[in-house]
Specification:
heterodimer, A: 217 residues, mainly alpha, Farnesyl Diphosphate Synthase, 9 helices, 0% strand, B: 324 residues, two-stranded antiparallel ribbon, 17 helices, 77% helix
């Protein structure tokens, strides 16, 4: 177990060392989230040649970007425009842009244009879904849960389909459980405020996942 | 000089660019269409598509490709503006509420991310890896410039090198990419591509310096924001850096404001903004802009003879001398 943890920590350390901007403090990152993304994407395809390593890094950058941009909304409290809060919003916006630029730079710089093409559609779709969640108040609790799952699994599905991985369903459930049901993520917290039935359905689905022995620890 | 008259030769293509942008932004589910069209309707000079189209005239232009490139560049610019407004907490852009003000920060961020992906996708159809290579480098540099700008906020000890590097990343590279990508997509030769890129780069530098000067010398009505906004928001631009070097009173006032940018000090800094606007630092900043403009015109001269050179020269002079 320790060696697995050490390996995962090493993945995080390598990624941060290689790509973090000098001016950005490491504590800006959700290290636990990053660790799990690095781990899950690696579990999907454990052996990577140098070309595949570029695609792996690029997809991690996009995943980091998509999630840190959620924090821009999360940190925004209209009545609390203190310097620190404002600085936090600004920095999260910039870090997200910085990592999405890495996604583009890595894939185009290494000539992986078919991978670039493949991943642009899910990136668009994740952002469409986020905007829909923010603005479509007619969605049922179940529809909301499905869309929240889509936000977190979108790039994983694209990664699996890029490599035509056929045996992905069990891991897919683990990933969804981990990011959506293990604890309440940002989108669930936000949606509970929008639709009070979400919490009930979320708890139901959480227990369904747990009954089927999904355990990410 | 009227810019529209100078650009009459590319008006049909600019109309095509405008139609295509509208077509793309309107094709999405309602909220994305609403936010994107809101951005689009705010207008703008569209200088990036203009430079793509004009630069493309030097090659054996395949018009369809050039239009796509021009549209992609404008969309990327739009995506960066919507994120900039979140970062700057802007509520008004070109006289209209910003997306973050009209809706919220999240909507603005996700709209920007969506438009960015859509614009890269647009270039994918053209099957020209060099376009991506240039653009991805530029976008990456742009994000580095933005992070540096935030880091440099309320920091008094900045030199000219730091300022020029920041505006290169923030503005000049995207304009340089416009001329370079226009040249690449119309199959210009390597030397033409280099000179057109240089032209765009120097114009971009001059353009941003003028923007920074106008922030002091223009009016709130023309700027659509308070005079001296850059300094009020803690950003040191060329006129301020020169004023700090030239005038101890300005330096002391700015130092005090940066240490404590409260309402009280904001009142005091407004006098400094007025002082800078009528100081020799403004002329000195204009001299820097003129120097970049000269370099742009030199790059233009080294290009083969072509009727479009006259148009590019006029635009360069217009952008370098504009008053708003």
């Amino acid at each position: 177990m320790n060696s697995v943890n050490e390996y995962q920590d090493q993945l995080v350390h390598t990624f941060i060392e290689q790509y973090k901007h000098t001016y950005v403090k490491a504590d800006r990152y959700d290290m636990t989230g990053l660790k799990h993304h690095l781990r899950f994407f690696r579990e999907l395809k454990p052996e990577l040649d140098s070309r595949e390593q570029v695609i792996y890094d690029a997809v991690i950058h996009m995943q980091v970007s998509l999630q840190i941009h959620d924090r821009v909304e999360f940190d925004f409290l209209p009545n609390d425009r203190t310097y620190n809060m404002v600085g936090s919003i600004q920095m999260n916006a910039l870090i997200g842009d910085y990592h999405s630029s890495w996604f583009y730079k890595l894939l185009s710089g290494s000539g992986e244009l078919s991978a670039l093409d493949h991943f642009l559609e899910p990136v668009k779709q994740v952002n469409r879904t986020k905007i829909e969640l923010l603005h479509n108040e007619q969605l049922s609790a179940i529809e909301i849960l499905n869309k929240v799952e889509d936000i977190y699994i979108g790039l994983y599905d694209a990664y699996a389909s890029y490599y035509q991985l056929t045996d992905y369903n069990y891991l897919r459930k683990q990933i969804i459980y981990h990011f959506v049901y293990r604890q309440q993520p940002f989108w669930i917290e936000k949606m509970i405020k929008q639709n009070s039935q979400v919490i009930e359905k979320w708890l139901e689905r959480k227990s369904q996942f747990e009954e089927t022995s999904i355990n990410c620890e | 000089m009227k810019l529209a008259a100078t650009l009459s030769s590319i008006k049909p293509e600019m109309d095509q660019v405008e139609r295509k942008i509208k077509e793309i932004t309107s094709a999405e589910p309602s909220m994305i269409s609403n936010t994107s069209n809101h951005l689009l309707e705010a207008g703008g000079k569209r200088i990036r598509p203009v430079f793509v189209l004009l630069a493309s005239k030097f090659g054996a232009s395949k018009q369809g490709d050039v239009i796509e490139v021009a549209v992609a560049l404008e969309l990327i610019h739009m995506a960066s503006l919507v994120h900039d407004d979140v970062i700057d907490r802007a509520t008004i852009r070109r006289g209209r509420p910003t997306v973050n003000d009209r809706w919220d920060n999240g909507t603005a961020m996700f709209t920007g991310d969506f438009i960015f992906a859509r614009s890269v996708e647009l270039l994918q159809q053209l099957n020209e890896p060099r376009l991506h290579h240039v653009l991805s480098h530029t976008i990456h540099q742009l994000t580095l410039g933005e992070i540096e700008q935030l880091k440099d906020r309320y920091l008094i000890g900045q030199n000219l090198f730091r300022y020029f590097r920041r505006i290169k990343r923030k503005t000049a590279l995207l304009i340089a990419s416009s001329t370079e990508l226009g040249a690449i997509s119309s199959k210009c030769n390597d030397e033409e591509i280099i000179q057109l890129k240089k032209f765009g780069y120097y114009i971009g530098m001059a353009y941003q310096i003028i923007d920074d000067i106008l922030d002091f010398t223009s009016t709130e009505e023309k700027l659509g924001k308070p005079v001296g906004s850059d300094l009020l928001n803690g950003h040191l631009t060329l006129p301020t850096i020169l004023a700090i070097q030239n005038d101890d009173a300005s330096r002391s006032s700015i130092e005090a404001y940066f240490k404590d940018p409260t309402e009280y000090n904001k009142g005091l800094i407004k006098q400094t903004i007025q002082d800078i606007s009528s100081s020799p630092s403004i002329d000195e900043a204009y001299a820097w802009s003129d120097a970049y403009l000269d370099r742009a015109l030199n790059a233009l001269e080294s290009l083969p003879s072509h009727p479009i050179k006259k148009t590019l020269r006029k635009i360069a002079v217009y952008l370098g001398k504009r008053k708003y």
